[in-house]
Specification:
By secondary structure, this protein is α/β, with parallel strands linked by helices. Helices cover about 40% and strands about 15% of the residues. α4 (about 100-115) runs parallel beside α5 and α11 packs parallel to α13. Bound molecules: pyridoxal-5'-phosphate (PLP).
């Protein structure tokens, strides 16, 4: 038996990877399981995306390795997108690094900046990958609390009073997954001040700013942000392109070059056709966002009713692909989601997947058609 690397000691298989295997087994046994647990958009990308990919396939000489930094047209399209939607200027030459999804960026950034033993501030609740990647590299996750009473914002004053001498990086993710909390300019300003004071690299993971949110914000809007901050963004949710694997990292030339030092040793560029599809998506006009959000709004109304059927409370003014619902006092998240799965054949995510502060909450995905959500509601209210 070949032994596993020590670095896997603290990393479990991703929750959804194991749980969805179980869901598939239940379906194979004939159980009519409805999955409202995951955030993989079911809607199609803009028409222009598939067309752009098809057109590239008719060209010659497109099948070779591509630039490690993405083709210049893609970086230009990203720069225009940031200018148009966030009023942020990033130089296409050296302040943008296209990625194969933002998830890989979490690993590349961490490999580029962390040494074993370095501490990393991670939101609780938060996206589990920040923790797994930190652990894989022998760095140390240090969780900061996000609580409903503080609008799921970090208490920076409290955090400043702790020993931050070993902290090298801090993950933030606004609009926040799983809670949907939207950032304010003031929050971003305070975070940049905090990062400068404590010499911490601040990374905003920003894949949800166009979903159910009229005021998309970037951490890079803040004056002087590039000195200490990076931003990850993604086409997965904004343009329903999760399977295409297109994301991007933005920040100062110095930081981007450091991350490229890792990334250029790990892959050999993104397929040309995918990059052309991404360019077409980034050029979408405002109707794209309006139409997609109209669909999500209708779905969200039913998701609110599902939350009510489960006697949950919830905040209506949130962004992103989920409804984050608070269970009645005393109810445990996994007990409720297991009961829903085994009794009602409904799979949704327990808040504890995202950390201990997710206890007492469940997450309902908006990535299924209205009729499917209505079916769930029917099962729960019958
Ligand atoms: C907070 C957060 N960050 C990053 C990702 C990964 O997105 P991508 O598809 O760009 O890798 C997700 C996906 O669910 C997410 O919820």
């Amino acid at each position: 038996m070949i032994t596993k690397a020590n670095r896997l000691q603290h990393v479990k298989e991703y929750y959804f990877s194991t749980k969805l295997r179980e869901v598939r087994q239940l379906i194979a046994q004939g159980k009519p399981v409805i999955n409202i647990g995951i955030g993989s958009p079911d809607l199609d990308p803009p028409m222009a995306v598939s067309r752009a990919l098809q057109q590239t396939l008719e060209k010659n000489h497109i099948h070779g390795y591509q630039s490690y930094q993405g083709i210049p047209e893609l970086r230009n399209a990203i720069a225009h997108f940031y200018q148009r939607h966030y009023n942020v200027t990033v130089h296409p030459e050296n302040e943008i690094l296209p990625l194969m999804g933002s998830k890989e960026g979490i690993m590349h950034i961490s490999m580029a900046f962390l040494n074993p033993g370095d501490e990393v501030l991670i939101p609780n609740p938060g996206y589990p990958t920040y923790t797994s990647v930190t652990n894989l590299l022998g760095a140390v996750p240090v969780y900061y609390d996000l609580v409903e009473e503080n609008n799921w914002f970090p208490d920076l004053e409290k955090l400043s009073k702790t020993n931050l001498s070993k902290v090298k990086m801090m993950w933030i993710n606004y609009p926040h997954m799983p809670t949907g909390s939207k950032p304010t300019k003031k929050l971003f300003e305070q975070l940049i001040i905090f990062a400068k004071q404590h010499q911490v690299l601040l990374i905003n993971d920003n894949p949800y700013s166009f979903i159910l949110n009229d005021t998309p914000k970037s951490i890079l809007e803040i004056n002087g942000a590039k000195e200490v901050a990076l931003e990850l963004n993604s086409l997965s949710k904004t343009f329903n392109m999760a399977g295409w694997r297109v994301g991007m990292l933005l920040g100062s030339q110095e930081h981007i070059t450091t991350v490229l030092q890792v990334k250029s040793n790990m892959d050999s560029g993104m397929f040309y056709g995918i990059q052309q599809g991404a360019i077409a998506a980034l050029k979408s006009d405002i109707n794209w966002f309006v139409n997609v959000n109209a669909v999500y709004k209708k779905r969200r109304e039913i998701a609110f009713s599902i939350a009510e059927a489960l006697h949950c409370t919830y905040d209506k003014d949130t962004a992103g692909l989920f409804v984050w619902a608070k269970l009645p006092k005393g109810k445990k998240a996994t007990a409720v989601t297991d009961e829903l799965l085994y009794t009602y054949n409904v799979f949704l995510a327990p808040g504890t997947v995202f950390g201990s502060n997710g206890e007492g909450y469940i997450r309902i995905s908006l990535c299924v058609p209205e009729e499917t959500l209505a079916q769930v509601l029917k099962r729960l209210t019958k």
